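To whoever is on call:

I kicked off a structure prediction for a single chain this morning and the downstream step that reads the tokens threw a length-mismatch warning. I double-checked the sequence; it's 373 residues and nothing unusual in it as far as I can see. Pasting both halves so you can look.
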Amino acid sequence: MLFTIIVFIAILSVLVLIHEAGHYFAAKKLGVKVEEFGFGFPPRIIGKKIGETIYSLNLLPIGGFVKLFGEDATGGGSVGTVDEKALQAKGKDLKCAFFARPVWQRGSIVVAGVVMNFLLALVILTYLFAFVGVTTAGNKVLIVGIAKNSPAEKAGLISGDQIIKINNENVTNPDTVTLYTKKHLGQSLTLLLLRSKEKQQIIHIIPRTKYPSNEGAMGIAISTNVFLKKYPLYEAPFIGLRQTLVDSWKILQGLGQTINQVAVERTVPNDLAGPVGIAQLTGQFIHVGPFAVLSLLALLSLNLAVLNILPIPALDGGRLLFILIEGLTRKKVSPKIEGYIHAAGMIVLLILVALITLHDITRALSGQSLQFK
């Protein structure tokens, strides 16, 4: 349990630091003053000023923030709004202020955290594809189980046999066997098998017309072979990028299904997880191995990127929306109105996190485990 908590905190720390580093480096590159780079939320435990920036460790290790000059970073590290006239009245140098930068620069700083989370997922997947490998289905059809007193047992089939042909028709996937068998129930079939990887055998078998629903006509369980496939280093980034985009789309689809289930069906999906649920899931991945934990980190980083880019108040996507509106209309939205909207969004998000956490705790107390899909 303790090790799971440590790993969970480490994962959370990496996700937060990578995200906030995106805002930090983008701001530095574009000449915006970074007043503070904080891990966790205040109150502050310790802080050290290096150059113009305070680097702080805060009491609540559930997030982080980058505080830029000329913006309000109290909302979880994302850029917000500020009273420009108040700063001018205090004689502040506005050249390095966030709000004084062009629309494209502010938009770049806001979206940089999302980009970093996306890149983290891409780098991890590239590493896994290149150096660890990914489980891949082959084109061999293997018998993995034999039912007792079935035609397969009587014909002499054994687990491990590879089906090469069925009545001279090449077999490359389980569907070929299943569909062909259903079309020839009660008829004699000739199977060409490869046994012990080198010895071919011919077996004659008659599929049953009546059989238990959990056995099948021949009484065999079949599956494709699987192997660990590694990609060359020059190819792995492209494979990783494709998988990252596919996973991003799946996350969007899952989010849409969740919203529909909650809003329309008025039920909470059992696989919906907050911090407690993710910690529980982390424990499951730890048992599988370190590379499984890496894949979880990539998935969580991608989830964070997708969620943050959505136009939700208080998140990066919500703040980006106001910047885009300004770019299109050439007129800033009232800082006060924007501030109220983000504050309301933050309240709603905190309530949702609390409800999801309660759901996590209830599921854990009932003995149910979170299933990864």
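Update from on-call: the warning came from a stale cache, not from the record. Cleared it. Sanity check on the structure: The beta strands are 34-50, 53-68, 134-146, 162-166, 169-170, 189-195, 199-205, 220-229.
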